[in-house]
Amino acid sequence: MTAELGAVLPRRRTGEEPLHLDGSAHGNLLGFWAWAYSGLVGNTLRGALAEYIVALALGVADQGTRVDWDSVDIRVPGGPKVEVKSSAYLQEWGQARLSAITFSIAPAEGWDTVTGAIDPARLRRADVYVFCLLKHQDKKTLDPLDLTQWSFYVLPTSVLDEHRPGQRTLNLASLLSLDPVHTDFAGLRAAVLH
């Protein structure tokens, strides 16, 4: 008998779900999350946190779950498709100096998470980009959960396609030259949905 090989769509969990063996609980999902995902300054988790922050601002964080490798980071029902990029001056490792701020903007293939089909056309699939900068520069007081430590730059994808069509990365000065909407968390929803 052939097993069903369709997509395994993530279901939203509470954290209370136990790891189990023969009906006996061995920890829970919240414990796993705390163990595996507490390093919010690292590039990978900081990026996922930035996506969550943007989803919170847009009012869609409680709708479903984040989908790895989706063609866009956030889909606002009846609204724009949003790509979220993150950068920071401070890293989790020891540094000799602050990191240079760069964001990835490379056009990419598309992937349908349900069918597994790949669209080989390399393009930017979102309607708008949100560049999230963890701007804080003191490791002793760094707290990625403090929304005042972030700045957000919102730019329509059409501007990137017109002025940086094949470019793969964008530094902060180059981003600012494109005249993005600069906002804090409180203004992020309006900047994206204008």
Describe the 3D structure.
This protein starts with 17 loop residues before the first strand and ends with a helix. The chain is globular and about 60 Å long. The strands form four sheets. It has a five-stranded mixed sheet with strand order 3-4-8-9-11. A two-stranded antiparallel ribbon has the order 1-2. It has a two-stranded antiparallel ribbon with strand order 5-10. The model has no long low-confidence stretch (mean pLDDT 94). 24% of the residues lie in helices and 27% in strands. Helix 2 (43-58) packs across helix 5. It is built from five helices and eleven strands; from the N terminus they run ββααβββββββαβαβα. The longest helix has 16 residues, at 43-58. It is an alpha+beta fold.
Helix and strand run: EEHHEEEEEEEHEHEH
Assembly type of the shown chains?
single chain
Radius of gyration: 19 Å
| CA(first)-CA(last) distance | 52 Å
Write out the strand line-up for the largest beta sheet, numbering strands in chain order.
3-4-8-9-11
In DSSP terms (H or I, runs of 4 or more residues), the helix count works out at: 5
Shape: globular
Q: How helix-rich are the residues, as a percent range?
A: 10-25%
- SSE class: alpha+beta
**Rounded mean pLDDT score:** 94
